[in-house]
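Translate structure to sequence.
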């Protein structure tokens, strides 16, 4: 079936042509003529000649077009959907080394448009140019102003508001390593010096550059996790002050600057709740005191974030507590891309459905879903596509309808739901002991001789990884998504050998079985080294498919270090087997479980800290 864009303005036609190319349908002079009208709901009607799309101010136009492309077989049809929320979108983390490439962001925009999202935030701590601050984003692949404007223009073509997402207090760990950047505006750790005019001059520069790059009147100012606020240079200069008062004074200054540049700021809400509930965020029937609520400036929206909860009642409690503030509430959920190399789509979808059901019931109008990249951003952005689709279909009234969801996903992704969900496999092992275990990361870097995480490994884990690799490999040549499957399969092949290698090495050494130890050292280590090299190459391909090259140097060092350490362990074993050493000191030390027990628990974990996961020594 062909769509005709006759009567549609040139800018919209340009977007439709790119959209058609992405999703495999045709646009021409002849064909089903597209007619647009206003509607309180999203409607799509085809009468055999004309495709009539009803939207509220254009919102969801491309979703309607996507629905039509999936259904057009020449027969008339009609679809009617509710909007769910006023605004719904995604946040992509660009600050944990994976700076999303321009083509990746544009592709994400096209997929978001197909799903009916209308906002996108790129989380950029120091990933943009600021006049007079050459060390801000230095060597990090920061976006130029021209790149941000181009992305803003492109998003607008598809009806998506690109919202600047910055930090204005903490999370400046990258630039604060440079002494020149710190001059006159650094408190302690990654925190700016509150109350200092140099700080507000710098923050004003941020707002100024955001104003030149973005159409949006909204901006996310962060303001979270400044746990050491006021305890560095601020303490030296002013003495001890109530840190909540420091924070609120700073927020007032920042909010005024945002208003000066025509922005309505939003910020994470947890600091207000933690003050009221003794450091806890979640309010079980409680209320934040009036005097605390009064500290929030009138022009600031509060973002309630919750990535963990699958109980709708808990969301109900938190939405009720947030609605007691005068400030509007925005909800932020999580698509769980931040536990290492694999996504956790299954958990993310369960939490997201619970959150959206509650949000709609409680009259929340704005939400977005985060794709963080903690500790290296190894997980591909598009690995979270099942979560993106599931959230969108819930928003438009199809929550709980798996038949609709799976059919819709196949149309969007070009791959079945079941097959795409295989990307979760690297962190799925028999008897997983937590919903968000990430053994594929901590076992990858687990030392071959002094394995901190040997205590978590079960006998069949290596076999399971071999099976995972075979299943993932089937889709390694997929035209769009093969890069993700190839990398995941290569990782599982590494772990099919490495997962149990530490335990088998200790067992062979402890029982004096030099034949088994020789097989490990002379055969398995060589194959492991080959597989690590292969994984590095495929992981690099996956990274460069989605991201700028800056940031991968961290992965080069990690995987290069892993390779070097494996080679070193091999030499250690060969020296022992060859009689050059009488013992292997690394294997002589008795291993203990992470719980402190003498016997291994064999429980899988969530542990996402590379620097502390491969050694008991000091690594930095």
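Result:
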């Amino acid at each position: 079936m062909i769509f005709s864009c006759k009567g549609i303005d040139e800018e919209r036609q340009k977007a439709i042509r790119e959209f058609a190319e992405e999703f495999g349908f045709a646009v021409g002079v002849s064909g089903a003529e597209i007619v647009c009208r206003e509607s309180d709901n999203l409607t799509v009607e085809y009468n055999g000649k004309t495709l009539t799309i009803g939207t509220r101010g254009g919102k969801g136009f491309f979703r309607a077009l996507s629905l039509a492309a999936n259904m057009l077989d020449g027969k008339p049809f009609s679809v009617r959907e509710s909007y769910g929320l006023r605004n719904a979108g995604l946040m992509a983390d660009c600050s944990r080394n994976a700076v999303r490439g321009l083509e990746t962001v544009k592709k994400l925009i096209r997929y978001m448009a197909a799903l009916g999202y209308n906002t996108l935030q790129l989380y950029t701590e120091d990933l943009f140019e600021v006049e007079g601050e050459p060390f801000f984003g230095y060597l990090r692949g920061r976006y130029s102003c021209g790149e941000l404007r181009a992305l803003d223009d492109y998003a607008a073509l598809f009806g998506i508001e690109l919202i600047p997402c910055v930090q204005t207090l903490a999370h400046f760990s990258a630039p604060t390593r440079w002494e020149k950047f710190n001059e006159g505006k650094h408190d302690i750790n990654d925190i700016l010096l509150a109350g200092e005019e140099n700080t507000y001059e710098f923050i004003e520069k941020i707002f100024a550059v955001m104003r030149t790059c973005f159409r949006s009147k909204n901006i996310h100012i962060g303001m979270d996790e400044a746990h050491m606020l006021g305890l560095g240079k601020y303490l030296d200069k002013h003495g001890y002050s109530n840190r909540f008062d420091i924070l609120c004074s700073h927020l007032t200054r920042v909010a005024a600057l945002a208003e000066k540049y025509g922005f309505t700021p939003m910020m994470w809400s947890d600091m207000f709740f933690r003050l009221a509930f003794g450091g806890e965020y979640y309010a079980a029937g409680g209320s934040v005191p009036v005097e605390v609520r009064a500290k929030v400036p009138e022009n600031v929206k509060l973002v309630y974030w919750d990535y963990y909860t699958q109980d709708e009642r808990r969301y109900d409690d938190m939405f009720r507590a947030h609605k007691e503030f005068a400030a509007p509430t925005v909800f932020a959920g999580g698509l769980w891309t931040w536990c290492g190399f694999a996504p956790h789509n299954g958990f993310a979808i369960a939490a997201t459905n619970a959150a959206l059901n509650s949000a709609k019931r409680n009259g929340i109008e704005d939400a977005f879903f985060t794709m963080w990249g903690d500790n290296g951003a190894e997980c591909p952005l598009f690995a979270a596509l099942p979560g993106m689709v599931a959230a969108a279909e819930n928003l438009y009234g199809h929550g709980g309808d798996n038949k609709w969801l799976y059919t819709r996903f196949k149309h969007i992704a070009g791959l079945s739901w079941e097959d795409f969900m295989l990307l979760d496999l690297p962190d799925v092992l028999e008897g997983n002991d937590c919903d968000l275990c990430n053994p594929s990361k901590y076992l990858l870097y687990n030392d071959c001789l002094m394995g901190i995480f040997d205590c978590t490994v079960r006998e069949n884990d290596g076999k399971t990884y071999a099976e995972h690799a075979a299943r993932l490999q089937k889709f390694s040549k997929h035209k769009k998504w093969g890069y993700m499957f190839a990398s995941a399969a290569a990782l599982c092949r590494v772990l099919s050998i490495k997962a149990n290698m530490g335990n088998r090495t200790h067992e062979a050494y402890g029982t004096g079985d030099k034949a088994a130890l020789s097989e490990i050292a002379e055969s398995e280590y060589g194959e492991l080294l080959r597989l690590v090299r292969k994984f590095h190459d495929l992981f690099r391909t996956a990274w460069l498919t989605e991201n700028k090259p800056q940031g991968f140097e961290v992965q080069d060092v990690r995987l290069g270090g892993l390779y070097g350490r494996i080679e070193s362990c091999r030499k250690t074993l060969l020296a022992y087997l060859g009689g050059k050493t009488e013992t292997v000191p690394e294997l002589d030390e008795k291993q203990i479980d992470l719980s402190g027990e003498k016997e291994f628990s064999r429980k899988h974990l969530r542990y996402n800290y590379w620097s502390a996961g491969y050694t008991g020594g000091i690594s930095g």
